[in-house]
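User: Run a structure prediction on this.
Assistant: Running it now.
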Amino acid sequence: MFDRLREDIACVYDRDPASRNAFEILTTYPGVHALLFHRVNHRLSGAGLKWLARFGSHIGRFLTGIEIHPGAQIGRRFFIDHGMGVVIGETTEIGDDVTLYHGVTLGGTTWNKGKRHPTLGSNVVVGAGAKILGPITVGDGARIGSNAVVTRDVPAGATIVGIPGRVVQKRTADDRVREETARKIGFDAYGQRGEMPDPVAQAINQLLDHIRVQDLRTEALCEALQQMGTQMPEVKMPDINPCEIGLEEVRSEGASGERPASRADT
C-alpha cells in the first residue's frame, strides 16, 4: 500500500507543475484523498461488506467532491486533477497512468445489471467536463477533449472532441516513436502533441527524428568499439528540464535588473 502511495505522489509531480512537495500533495490534493478512500472501500466491497464500502465512498464524496463507486477497478498511478464533480460508476475499469480532470463522468446508459460503464486503457487523458457513457472501450493513449460526450468505442491513440465525440486525430507509428524519444531525453512534457501549432509541431518532430537517428548511430558506434576491445564507460544521459532553465534565467534577470545576454547579443 505504501508503494502505491509513493507512486501516486510521484505521478502528481509528473503531471501537475503546481505541486511542490510530498507533504503538500498528501494533505491538499483531493484526487489523492479520493483514491485512498477508494482503495479501502474497494477492499471492503470485495470482502462482502457492501454497505460499509458504500458508506465509505459517501464519506469520501463529502470530503473531496469526487464520487467513486467501490466496485470500480482502478489501475496504478491514477491521477484526478482538481477533482470536483468527478463521477466513476460501479463497473468502470481504468488502466495504468490515466488522468482525469474535474467534472468528468464515467457513467452508464442503462439500468440493467452487468457491465454498463466504460473501460479506459492505459495512458488515457480525459479533459474537464467530458462524459464517457456506456460499456464502451477507450483505447490506450487516447485523449478525450474537454466537454466531449463519448458513447462509442475510441481507438487507441485517438483524440476525441465534440458532442457527440468524434475522432479528430489518430497517432501514427512515427508519433509513438517520437514520444518515446522525447520521454527518453527527459523532454516529454514538451513533446509533440496534435493540438500544437503546425510550425512548432514540425520543428519539434524534426528535432526528435534527428535525435533518434543520432542515438542509433551512437549505439552502433559503441557496439563496434566494444567488439574491437574498447571498454566503454557506463554513462547515464542527464535529463533536460526546460522549466528549471527558464527559472534560472528569470532569477538572473531579477537579481541584476537586466535581461541575461543571449548568444545573439554577444
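Residues 2-171 form a domain with the UDP N-Acetylglucosamine Acyltransferase; domain 1 fold (CATH 2.160.10.10).
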